[in-house]
């Protein structure tokens, strides 16, 4: 669970680690914060360089002091902040997305401080250092009147959506399914799931993984790992770049405790949102992009969505299942798509329905991750998540944009 | 004998299908797409194997009720366990379109030897691959081959097309009895030996 990979080549010249460790082991009284910092730095670059007792002692020492009741902040404010930033929550220390509580270790190249954004939730996800480059994106303000139930996905940042059900099967009744924001490390070894109104789910770190080919242009990622009493797994379709980093991923996730049998699981769609430059170029060109593909929970549903860029960028789409068909439409703001009540077909209870999505990828690997919560007359509630691929490569962008 | 085994196997499948149908009828259909009547079985070519000889076990998948498109592709990771005093693992060879994504790797659990392997790209119904074992035990003994999912918590079996969806097949192991080489075979071998010796003797 420790973000061991979060410490890229931190070396302190002249550090006499052995002496520091001896003092930690010999005398339980705490070391100076500076010494503890050095111990943790060395441990971060070489897990065998420090005994676990010393590491634990120093981690406890450098962890933030608990807030006194008299100093306690408004619980609702804390909850809102945790929603905005998983690194502010109680599970921050275990989050693969967070640096950890020992802020003294953050190198100069570490993540930027949180930006404050007025959006419902999950807007400004602080990345682990491995993701910092992808997360370093400009924010486009949301257009007035647009509300995103699961928060915004800023351009050029990792973004994903997931369904969450109790148990290991990933499937469940729509009424028992909740939505979540989903993040995956580009090497596929860890993930987080942030369900609406429930605690953050953090996978075990460094899952073992294998990637194999498929008859289509996807590959299959199988990742599975155990850490103590916890076990996590992902089985997904993935599209990778030449360096083996995952660009797009979709399908099964799970996390639980085999001993107790408690588990949560679901389906997901994940990628990196289209860059602000590419979005602007598409807007300037008045481009239209067409996305299509199966949904993940019920892959008997095929979705087709057209995005029309322009002064006001809009989208419309259809979802066809043997048991029902409906259409929806709405607005695009930055990389975010959201439905409008007037955009639904007549067989949908519009006030009880929404579609939210995010444009992913660049030219050649564009995709649309999205969730649907739709109440269809004569069928009932549908909750699903899907990763749709661009039907044919969209218009070429000016050199240097979206490469 | 193989035909007889297949018949018995089909009977089991019919029973499982009827059970699944009853579950659907009683309203347990929420997970029907996931907890299907799919089955993975070890099928020996014969229930008796000859001591000291190699023999084969087919790994047979029936994923007809699993989710996904048709024709689809299916896969998962299994563990086969057996008594190392009675049997020895030789090899596993995939059949048809099936490929391995892990193993086969040997291990042990609870005094039994295990072979773990992961396969994918298997058709919905057919032989995934063939295990080859050697019978080490003496004539008159016999033993079982257990078959289970390599991850009994999450399960590893999925349908790959068009999207990845999990399913949870049943598992059916195999039992074989170890017998001596038949007396007729001894007589036949002896006769062959005599003929060879006689032919090689210089003619007077």
Features:
heterodimer, A: 403 residues, alpha+beta, 3 domains, nine-stranded antiparallel sheet, eight-stranded antiparallel barrel, 6 helices, 14% helix, globular, disordered N terminus, B: 204 residues, Immunoglobulin-like, eight-stranded mixed sheet, five-stranded mixed sheet, 2 helices, elongated
Specify the helix fraction band of chain A. Answer: 10-25%
> Secondary-structure element sequence of chain A?
HHHHHEEEEEEEEEHEEEEEEEE
Work out the oligomeric state of the chains in this entry.
heterodimer
Radius of gyration of chain B: 21 Å
Low-confidence stretches of chain B: 14-35
For the secondary structure, the number of strands of chain A is 17
Mass-distribution shape of chain A: globular
- How would you state the average pLDDT of chain B, rounded? 83
Count of DSSP H/I helices of chain B:
2
Q: What Rg of chain A is obtained from the alpha carbons, in whole angstroms?
A: 22 Å
Notes on the protein architecture:
The complex is a heterodimer of chains A (403) and B (204). Residues 1-29, 64-89 and 92-141 of chain A have low confidence and may be disordered. The radius of gyration of chain A is 22 Å and the shape is globular. Chain A has helices spanning 17-26, 33-45, 52-62, 75-84, 132-135, 276-285, and strands at residues 158-166, 178-184, 191-195, 201-202, 208-213, 219-227, 230-240, 246-257, 262-272, 288-294, 302-308, 314-321, 324-333, 336-339, 354-360, 367-376, 380-390. Chain A has three domains: 4-62, no CATH class; 158-272; 276-390. Chain A has six helices and 17 strands. Chain B has one domain (2-200): Immunoglobulin-like (Sandwich). In chain B, a hairpin with a 5-residue loop joins strand 10 and strand 11 (165-166). In chain B, the strands form two sheets. In chain B, strands 2, 4, 6, 7, 9, 10, 11 and 13 form an eight-stranded mixed beta sheet that branches. In chain B, strands 5-8-3-1-12 form a five-stranded mixed beta sheet, covered by helices on one side. With 204 residues, chain B is an alpha+beta fold. The A-B interface holds A 168-173, 210, 212, 214-216, 220, 222, 224, 231, 233, 235-237, 250-252, 254, 256, 258, 263, 265, 293-296, 299 and B 30-31, 33-35, 67-69, 73, 99, 101-102, 118, 120-121, 151, 153-156, 158, 160-166, 168.
